[in-house]
Amino acid sequence: MEKFYQETLHKLETAIDELEIEADNSMQRIEAVMQLVIQSLADLKEFVLKNDFKNMEEEIHFFKHQKPVIVSKLIYYNAIYKIETRRPYGNKRIRKHFTKELKKLKRFFDSNIDFYKYYRSNNSFVDEKFFVRGKHDIRLWLDTFYFEADHRFSTSHDYKVAKIIANDLIQVYLEDRLNNINEKKGSDNSLKWTASKTALTELIYALYAHGVFNSGNTDIKLIAKAFEDAFNIELGDFYHTFMELKARKINRTKFLDNLCEALIKKMDEQDEKQ
């Protein structure tokens, strides 16, 4: 079992490292990683069902220390995928979003503090009930997940261990992202947008319509986010603002027209000085 597990883990981590280097789109990379983890778990399950364990000690070791390492990767990447796909725009809302996710981790910790103490203290006196198949005790902190799992490849607490490992990684990820936001906030950014948000939205959509970023292959949301970060501003529902611009009866491009007039005036002034 040990040899097959180590080979499976090494193969998985090598493939993940390669994706980290090669894949450009972070969401596509996470999807690919999750598929790799799912396949690795399928390979492990097939091996266990065919060969079983030599003794109870090997079974406990597998479900307490080995399987959770791989399952934790699936939990981690799935959580990051959800966090990033649900991430709002604007640093203030992003900070609130990440803080909310950290609170979820804290709630899990508070709900499972007894098992946290048991696991992190390297205790083993209840391992036979926690990490041997078919030995569950309904009084010992069981998750609903266990009753839906395949009991040929699950114990009452191996998933909980994986969750603990994953949550530690998720916490590091979230805190790192929050630190990045706070560093940006604290940096000396002398450029502040002092015109209206409507004016900035008009400018963003004009640049988007003209395809000036990435040969026109950039999503409007990414452009808006770049401007929000650059000028420390939250545009809110900029699509609704754009719809209001479209609905104008007169001068739908008021800000852009004013830009043109200001630039021409500046040029004329320069010519007069020469």
TrEMBL record:
Residues 2-36 form a coiled coil. Keywords: Coiled coil. Pfam families: RteC. This is Tetracycline regulation of excision, RteC.
